[in-house]
Amino acid sequence: MTAFVTFSFRRAASLALALLLVLGLGLAHPAIAQEAQAPTPQGSAASVPLGTTLAPGYVLGTGDKLRISVFGEPKLDGEYVVSSTGIVSFPLIGNVPASGQTVEALQESIRSKLAAGYLKDPRVSAEVLNYRPFYILGEINKPGEYPFVNGITVQQAVAMAGGFSYRANTKRVFIKRALETAERPVQIKGKAVLLMPGDTIRVGERFF
């Protein structure tokens, strides 16, 4: 009888210990999951916003190439480039200001001009085919103008331009956005800093 009681007590103790272990793992697991799901900082200068894609409110500028269509008017459909003076030359209505406007605003501008004596209730659509290029200067092996691709990073831009020179500061660059007047320092060491169309990147010299 004593042996049976001892066995039962030991079995109950083992089950209790196993239950505590399971509960302990169950409590720890959400914490692990929460830590894994915590957002990873992008790590860029606050003044230069990052993103994985271009926002819907993208602002047009010199060099952007668009396809503009007018429903039911195939002769007006075509590809148009924002000129160095910031305009798009469109049939019937002539020059339309484009630089500094969103695609949606440009659509409405063309629509309203066509509706003013040319077409009845025109429907206009526009989309960007090719974004304006970016520029990379300074301590780089092949400085110059390069085609912009959505999602391109500073590191990829440097690779396109033949890499850093031996004098380059590889931890920080300066970026000037197309519609801004001043450049801003951006830390790039171990960070994927995304570019925007029309950006100018300047690679400075490191201190030996």
UniProtKB/TrEMBL annotation:
Domain of life: Bacteria
InterPro entries cross-referenced by the UniProt entry: Poly_export, Poly_export_N, SLBB_dom
Domain Polysaccharide export protein N-terminal: 55-128
Keywords linked to the UniProt accession: Cell outer membrane, Ion transport, Lipoprotein, Membrane, Palmitate, Polysaccharide transport, Porin, Signal, Sugar transport, Transmembrane, Transmembrane beta strand, Transport
One MF annotation (Gene Ontology) recorded for this entry: polysaccharide transmembrane transporter activity
Pfam families, A to Z: Poly_export, SLBB_2
Start and end residues of each SLBB domain: 134-203
Cellular compartment(s): Cell outer membrane
Signal peptide stretch: 1-33
Membrane topology of the entry: Multi-pass membrane protein
The family this protein is said to belong to: Belongs to the BexD/CtrA/VexA family.
Protein name: Polysaccharide export protein
Source species: Rhizorhabdus wittichii
